Predict the 3D structure of the following.
Amino acid sequence: MFRTRTVFEQDKYKILKARSHDAPILSALTKGDWSERVAVSARRVNDNPNQIADDLRRGGGLVLMRHNVAVAALSYVPARDGSWELRRLGVTRSFSGRGFTTLLLTTLEDLARRANVKSIRIPVDSYSPQHKAYFERLGYSIDSERTFSTIFSGAVQPIRMRKLIV
């Protein structure tokens, strides 16, 4: 049975399920203008399309297309606790502030709900209160019991934010 990869479509844009061959697009978008909104460890800076393709196969991703040009994307992987963990999130600067990030996250939440996933978690840089506030407006809260660890001494530890999917 043929399954479309279009998840959402409206007027001039659509959201597609990302496939492993979309990894270079996710790499370019998430290393770009919006990458500072989620924690970027040295691992993320060194991300390459092969690592991203592996994450897409393990979990999934979404690509937002406007007039057939990729302008925003995210990827996620399943976590040990059964939640989905956002790995990458990116929006081009020229499309920032138009609600595309919120649309991607809302679409991800809908997919999680359909897959019976109970929560989505996001690493957020602890030195970035405006990004923390953005995710709080979307219903995410600090998972007080957890921070993300890095292998780099002296690195700022991102906080884990979580949203329960009901």
